[in-house]
Amino acid sequence: MIGYIASFLTIIQVVIYIVLLPGDSNGENLWQLVIYQSAIVACVISLCTLLARSQYKIYIANKQIYLFQDEKRKIEKEIELKNRIIETLSTNNHNITHEVRQIQYKLYKYFINELLVFNIKENDEDDVDFIDIFKKDETDNYELKDFLSFFTTNVKNSFDCLTGNICSVYITIFDDKNKQLVHTYYRDPLSYTERTNIDLKYPVYDINLFTPFKYIMNKHTINTVFACDDCSNYSNFCDRNDNWNIYYNSCLTIPIRLRVNKKKNRHHIIGFLTIDNKEGGLDNEIAKDVARSYADILYMIICMFTINDSLIINENDNEQK
Fold first, then answer.
1. Span 113-138, mean pLDDT?
2. Which of 131, 217, 221, 240 is the most buried (most CB within 10 A)?
3. Region at 42 (left for phi over 0; alpha for psi -120 to 50; beta for the rest)
4. What percent of the residues of the chain are helix, what percent strand, and what percent coil, each to the nearest 5?
């Protein structure tokens, strides 16, 4: 564009030379030529300056548009990710609550039919041997195993999506006789194959051997949730397995509990729900609240399936403020 303007003004200058110089043998029109040349130079400079400013403004505007579009793409990706997380959480939560509803309905039908002496419909498979779900020996309780497999798989899927990392989920329950001891009650099917050797080596262990349990059960602890995205740098972090950092570096542990005294804010705790991974994303309020909701479901399910004296609420056992 500048080249075209300069060429145009050069042509004008040539025309001026042709018009003025031939009829000016005495040089009378020379001063006019100087004025015209000065004017032309001033016009060229002004036009070039104006054009440069316009080009700069266009450059800035294009840059802002590009940045805006780039920011728009980032926001759209974030919204897409959030929507995917919400959809995954909604689906998994619905799956779990659906199974809980089925279990509660079976329990309701059992009590109505057996305890209130209502008639049982013949050939109703849902009612056949339903008393089996109350077996004391949870190792023989296939319905509980089926539910926990389904439950831990859905919890894992939720946290995989929520954190963007591959997570492991496991449930730990207090020992029947010694409330200072715990044992791994159930692991999600994927991590079970990787960590079953740990559970075989340490079938029962002291809560003080695992920092999250020790932290939560400390009577002076105000926040009854343990969450850390970098356990390697957590002060004096310990696990019964010395090679724990091979499996995880981020950990979230929630107590499985029921409030038994509202005024004193006391809870009866039967165990823990733990989620871990190697990358992080667990030490935030969303992850904590999602885990709390799953732990709340676990309390009643485990109690319903394992009618056991050790799980009967006693305000003196495993009490947590």
1. 46
2. 217
3. alpha
4. 60, 15, 25
What is the identity of the amino acid at 81? L
Look at residues 189, 105, 106 and name the one whose alpha carbon lies nearest to residue 146. 189
pTM for the model stands at 0.66
Token pair listed for 42: 């001033």
Please tell me the distance from the alpha carbon of residue 245 to that of residue 239, in angstroms, as a whole number: 9
Higher pLDDT, 248 or 77: 248
Residue whose entry in the numeric block shows the structure tokens 């005024």: 263
Amino acid 276 reads D
Q: Which two tokens stand for residue 64?
A: 């802002």
Give the Cα separation of 92 and 84 in Å (integer).
12
Name the nearest CA neighbour of 276 among 215, 229, 225, 210: 229
Distance of alpha carbon 281 from alpha carbon 228, whole angstroms: 9
